[in-house]
Design a protein that fits this description.
This protein is mainly β. The chain has one domain: Distorted Sandwich (Deoxyuridine 5'-Triphosphate Nucleotidohydrolase, Chain A). The chain is built from three helices and twelve strands, in the order E-H-H-E-E-E-E-E-E-H-E-E-E-E-E. The longest helix is centred in the N-terminal third of the chain and has 8 residues.
């Protein structure tokens, strides 16, 4: 097992989407896994599994229906796609997403990745099923000589800060 993307389980899908399934008419497993657009692309494009509107001066969390596995010394960095940022000024709420290797299959949410967007403009922005909404780039990371992080992840988003 090197690195790759998987769909979350039907159970997790139903749990995460229970409030929005009917509104968005999304069925498991009709969404796409991230993929590169060309052989020299660094980023894996994430596709929206739902139709959504990011209101003017508002935020929206988009579920991806995807989890990622990778080596222990790797991280997946999530960035906005250049075309969204340059053409529309839509941004990630946290500027850059950091997905650690131990987020995969965590007990809280299976490692289901969500992407939260902020719309600083005066106009609503529409996202449609299948739109490329963000990109993920795998990279290695280094630790210091005196690193002693021995805590295990106990849950999902923000769980290592508890």
């Amino acid at each position: 097992m090197q690195r790759g993307f998987e769909q979350i389980s039907q159970k997790q899908w139903d749990n995460d989407f229970h409030n929005i399934l009917e509104m968005h008419q999304v069925d498991y497993p009709k969404h796409q896994l991230p993929k590169r657009g060309s052989k020299n692309s660094a980023g894996y494009d994430f596709f929206s599994p739902i139709n959504e509107i990011i209101p003017a001066h508002g935020t929206v969390k988009i579920p991806t229906g995807v989890k990622v596995y990778m080596q222990p010394d790797e991280v997946l960095m999530i960035y906005p796609r250049s075309s969204i940022g340059f053409k529309t000024n839509i941004r990630l709420s946290n500027t850059t997403g950091v997905i650690d290797s131990d987020y995969y299959n965590n007990p809280d949410n299976e490692g289901h990745m969500w992407i939260k967007f902020y719309n600083p403009t005066d106009e609503d922005y529409h996202i449609f099923i299948g739109d490329k909404i963000a990109q993920g780039i795998f990279t290695k990371f280094l630790v210091t000589d005196d690193d002693n992080a021995d805590q295990d992840r106990t849950g999902g988003l923000g769980s290592t800060g508890k």
